[in-house]
Amino acid sequence: MYLQELQLQHFRNYPSADLKLGPGINVLLGENAQGKTNLLEAIYVLALTRSHRTANDHDLVNWEAKTAKVSGRVVKAVGSVPLELTFSRQGKRAKVNHLEQARLSQYIGQLNVILFAPEDLAIVKGAPTVRRRFMDMEFGQMNPRYLYNLSQYRTLLKQRNRYLKDLQHKQNRDLLFLSVLSDQLAAYGAEIIAQRLRMLHKLEHWAQAIHAEISQQKEELTFHYATQVPEDQLTDPDTICAALTQLYKDHQDKELYRGTTLVGPHRDDLHFRVNGKNVQTFGSQGQQRTTALSVKLAEIDLMKEETGEYPVLLLDDVLSELDDARQTHLLKAIQDKVQTFITTTSLSGITRQLIKDPIIFHVANGTVVADGSAPSGDPATKED
Question: Which residues are ATP-binding (predicted)?
Fold first, then answer.
C-alpha cells in the first residue's frame, strides 16, 4: 500500500497543493514552522478522518476559508482507490472511490498509517490514557470489528455514566435499567479486551525481535495488559463478559457514590517490561526510546499480518530524537519495505548515507516543490 498522490485545499497553511509521491522514501525538507508537519498531518487525517494534533476539526481549515479538503489516491495490491475528506462547519464528509460514506467507520481502513513523532515516547512514559488511545487508534485501523465494538462501548459508557449521575440525586433508585446498561457494556467491553489481548500478543512477538536486535540481545521486551478482570478469566469474550458483569455488581455502591463507571477497558493500561522490570518506572531514557521505537516498527509487520498490506509510515522529526545506532536501525528497517515520509531540517550525516534514492520535497511557507522541479509547471508538484 502506498499513497500515490495528495491534494490539499485550504488545509492549515496550504491554500492548495498537489503532490505526486514515490512508493519509497519521501523527504519533506525545510526549516521549522514552514508546513512540514502539516503535510504529515494531512496524510494522517486522510487515513483516520481526524488529526493527531487537535480534537477540533475547524483548526484544520485555513483561517481565510470556510472549508478544507484533503484528497489522494491509494495504491493497493487490488488496485488504486481515490479518497476524499471535506471539513466544514457542518461537519466532515468522507468519500471512497467518489462515493460518500454514510459512516466514518466505513471509510477508516482504506489507508493505513503509522505515525512516529518525538511525543510518541509518551506511549512508554506517559499516562495510561495515552496507551489506551494508542491501542484504539492502531487496532481500529487494522480491524473494523474492533472499531465497531469501541464505538458501541463509548456510546453505552456515556449513557451509563449519565444515568449514574442521575441516580446520585434520587432517593428511590431504579437499578434495573442500570443492570441492563451494565450487561450491554460488559458484552462490548469483553470483545474489546479480547481483541486487545489478541493484537498485543502479535505486536509483542514482532517488537521482541526488534528490541533484542537494537539492544544487541541484551534486553527482552515483554507486554503486560493491566485490567481488573482476573488473569485466569482472560480466556474468551464470554468468560471476560461474565467477569465484567460481576465486577460491575461488586463496584455498584462505589460507582453510585462517584457517579461514574470504574471498571472496563476504558480504565485498563498497557505496561512495557524490559528484562522483567517496568520500563516506564525503572527504565533508562535509552531503554524507553528503544521500547517506543520497537513498538512502532513492530506495528508495520502487525498491520501487514492483519490487513495483507504494509502501512504508510510517517516520521515527524523523529531522527533528531534518536542516536546514530537507533537512526541506523530505523532507516535500514524501512528501506525498500514501506512508503515513508520523513520531515527534517537537514539531509546531512547519517540520513543521507542510509536513505536510498529518496524523493525530496522542499517545503517553505506553505509551498511544496519536488527536488529538481521548477517552481511551477511541473506535473509532479505545484507550488503556490
Answer: 30-37
Closest by CA position to 61, among listed 7, 117, 8, 104: 8
Instruction: Report the range of poorest mean pLDDT among 15-24, 58-67, 364-373.
Output: 364-373
The torsion of the CA quartet 150, 156, 157, 159, rounded to 10 degrees, works out to 150
pLDDT at 252: 95
Q: Which of 238, 214, 221, 211 is nearest to 278 (CA)?
A: 221
Whole-angstrom distance, CA of residue 345 vs CA of residue 35:
12
In this prediction, residue 350 carries a pLDDT of 47
Q: Which three cell numbers stand for residue 5?
A: 498522490
Measured distance CA(183)–CA(236) in Å, rounded: 16
CB 214 within 8 A of CB 322: no
Rounded Cα gap, residues 282 and 260, in angstroms: 32
Please, is 252 exposed, middle or buried when counting C-beta atoms within 10 Å of its C-beta (0-12, 13-18, 19+)?
Answer: middle
Sign of CA dihedral 274, 278, 282, 283: positive
350 SS3 class: helix
pLDDT, one tens digit per residue, over 294-338 is 999 999 999 999 999 999 999 988 877 777 788 788 887 787 789
Binding-site residues for ATP, in ranges, read 30-37
Domain 1-112+309-384 has CATH 3.40.30.10: no
Whether 236 has a pLDDT exceeding 70, the answer reads: yes
C-alpha cell at 372: 529538481
- Residue 6 predicted with pLDDT over 60: yes
DSSP string, 283-337: --HHHHHHHHHHHHHHHHHHHHHHHSS--EEEEES-GGGS-HHHHHHHHHHHTTT
CA-to-CA distance for 141 and 29, rounded, in angstroms? 28
Higher-confidence residue of 143 and 351: namely 143
Q: Is the model's pLDDT at 375 over the cut of 70?
A: no
In this structure, are residues 73 and 5 in contact, taking their beta carbons and an 8 Å threshold?
yes
With H, G, I as helix, E, B as strand and everything else as coil, classify residue 109: coil
In the numeric block, the cell 520500563 is attached to: 279
